[in-house]
User: Which sequence fits this backbone?
């Protein structure tokens, strides 16, 4: 049943490849995007916020196209849509903006027609579009997601992040698209590197599941993508080696970069030291960057309400942080 009043949803950002978990381990983060969707006489796409620059506002828009996939799958015909989107998630920085748009579009379109598709189905569709399940899983389900994608079916387990876990991201002021950052990866790896990552990834997942923050430092390393991508982010190689000496529990490239992400004990008295170290190291390499303290987001995609009681911007105003 189509909801004539429309819906609006909120979707968290995400970090993929958490440490050794390349293409498999992701976490939702407390930066959000909002999507409003309504059936309409004529398609109208309104994008708000500085993060939306350059995104198309016609039917080639990703959110419109993904919404139509949901309608096709559910056997519903809604060719014309009014879509509104506001996002605080930086574009093309390794914080899952594309995953948030895909998950938001799937979730909103499904809610608009009375949610005939299960969350497992939405996860499968999202993974088929994005091609790896860690960003989309985290944005859809929230928390920490470990997932497997065999090209047809995605399986996952969601873990609740430990309450002491805080996240510091350092976002460089340049963009790095995932497709560009995948081109530098080798097609094959050695058995030693495979064992290196499998062992650390397995232990990291178990440690996160049991709240063993003391094990993060020894498990957050990687040989599958970070060494190859280090040349794309000035300062990254040094930061990956040294950040734990400045108070991080662990440090990783967030997704395909260029953002670097530190896991931090929120009670640590070295938070200022860590932030200054990360920013100064990037500055020394000529990179301007913004530091943001975030929390893991326990909530994934959420239906917030319908569009009957005001304009999209008025509806989300109370939720968007200044
Ligand atoms: N709200 C959106 N609407 C349409 N396309 C989007 C939206 N958000 C992101 N994208 C697309 O995703 C691209 C960024 O994806 P990607 O390179 O994977 O980086 P990341 O997901 O880390 O931000 C953008 O250049 C744009 O093409
Ligand atoms: N596993 C992917 C992750 C891409 O994440 P994004 O947030 O940078 O889109 C990869 O490393 O290529």
Assistant:
């Amino acid at each position: 049943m189509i909801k004539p009043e429309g819906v609006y949803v909120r979707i968290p950002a995400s970090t993929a490849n958490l440490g050794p978990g390349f293409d498999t381990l992701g976490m939702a983060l407390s930066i959000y995007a909002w999507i409003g969707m309504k059936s309409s006489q004529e398609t109208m796409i309104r994008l708000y916020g500085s993060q939306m620059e350059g995104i198309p506002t016609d039917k080639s828009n990703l959110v419109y196209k993904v919404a139509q996939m949901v309608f096709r799958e559910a056997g519903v015909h809604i060719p014309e849509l009014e879509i509104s989107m506001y996002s605080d998630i930086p574009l093309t920085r390794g914080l899952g903006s594309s995953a948030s748009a895909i998950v938001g579009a799937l979730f909103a379109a499904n809610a608009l027609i009375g949610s005939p598709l299960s969350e497992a189905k939405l996860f499968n569709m999202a993974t088929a579009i994005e091609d790896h399940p860690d960003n989309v899983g985290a944005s859809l389900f929230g928390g920490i997601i470990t997932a497997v994608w065999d090209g047809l079916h995605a399986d996952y387990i969601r873990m609740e992040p430990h309450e002491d876990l805080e996240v510091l991201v350092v976002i460089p002021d340049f963009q790095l698209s995932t497709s560009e950052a995948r081109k530098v990866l080798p097609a094959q790896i050695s058995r030693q590197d495979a064992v290196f990552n499998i062992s650390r990834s397995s232990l990291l997942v178990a440690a996160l599941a049991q709240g063993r923050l003391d094990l993060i430092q020894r498990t957050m390393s990687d040989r599958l993508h970070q060494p190859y991508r280090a040349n794309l982010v000035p300062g990254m190689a040094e930061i990956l080696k040294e950040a734990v000496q400045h108070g991080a529990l662990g440090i990783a490239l967030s997704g395909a970069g260029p953002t670097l992400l530190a896991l931090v004990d929120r009670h640590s008295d070295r938070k200022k030291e860590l932030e200054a170290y990360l920013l100064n190291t990037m500055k020394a390499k000529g990179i301007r960057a913004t530091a943001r303290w975030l929390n893991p987001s326990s909530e994934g995609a959420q239906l917030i309400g319908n569009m009957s009681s005001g304009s999209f911007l008025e509806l989300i105003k109370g939720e968007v942080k200044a």
In short: The chain has eleven helices and eleven strands.
